């Protein structure tokens, strides 16, 4: 058994210092989401995704897995093009995308402060031909480059520490 190295983080063991949070997710024609849907803003400490069966709760997690480079089979699909929204009257959509917006914050007594200039986004766009493109702040990059940048910020995509999937 190999234990991966601990990721770097700017947060101190006592909970002080900066930490990275997801501010919002913007999904466009992704799975059950037709058009552009803004999911968030998320709470700085805890967010619960609730709703009746079939309302798209799992698609929120799937959108994160999609952006972070998971294969279609891990996103409950046979191929990446199946993630593109398709419904009656909307069967001619050629792509879907998800963009996740991050920011670093410092906790204060009853609030938090966003560290100026710390905001960034990671996105992925999938096409009907089963290809996809990743971007960091709108600039096209490989998933390997994005994984390296996220690792520097404490998100380890390589060792799969961040997603906690249930169900």
TrEMBL record:
Superkingdom of this protein's organism: Eukaryota
One GO cellular component term: condensin complex
Protein keywords: ATP-binding, Nucleotide-binding, Nucleus
ATP-binding listed as a keyword: yes
Localisation: Nucleus
Domain RecF/RecN/SMC N-terminal as annotated: residue spans: 22-156
Keyword check for ATP-binding: yes
Pfam families: SMC_N
Main subcellular location of this protein, as a coarse class: nucleus
UniProt feature coiled coil, ranges: none
SUPFAM superfamilies per record: P-loop containing nucleoside triphosphate hydrolases (SSF52540)
A Gene Ontology molecular function term of the record: ATP binding
InterPro entries: P-loop_NTPase, RecF/RecN/SMC_N
One of the GO biological process terms: mitotic chromosome condensation
Name of the protein in its database record: Structural maintenance of chromosomes protein 4
Lineage: Eukaryota, Metazoa, Ecdysozoa, Nematoda, Chromadorea
């Amino acid at each position: 058994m190999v234990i991966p190295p601990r990721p770097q983080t700017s947060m101190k063991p006592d909970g002080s210092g900066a930490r990275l949070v997801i501010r919002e997710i913007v999904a466009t024609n992704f799975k059950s989401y037709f058009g552009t849907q803004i999911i968030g803003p998320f709470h700085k400490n805890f967010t619960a995704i609730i709703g009746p069966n079939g309302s798209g709760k799992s698609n929120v997690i799937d959108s994160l897995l999609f952006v972070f480079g998971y294969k279609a089979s891990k996103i409950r699909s046979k191929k990446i093009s199946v993630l593109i929204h398709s419904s009656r009257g909307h069967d001619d959509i050629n792509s879907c995308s998800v963009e996740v917006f991050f920011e670093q914050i410092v906790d204060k007594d009853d609030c938090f402060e966003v560290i100026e200039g710390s905001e960034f986004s990671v996105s992925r766009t999938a096409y009907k031909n089963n290809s996809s493109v990743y971007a960091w702040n709108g600039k096209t990059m490989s998933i390997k480059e994005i994984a390296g940048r996220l690792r520097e910020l404490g998100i380890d995509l390589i060792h799969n520490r961040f997603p906690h999937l249930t169900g």
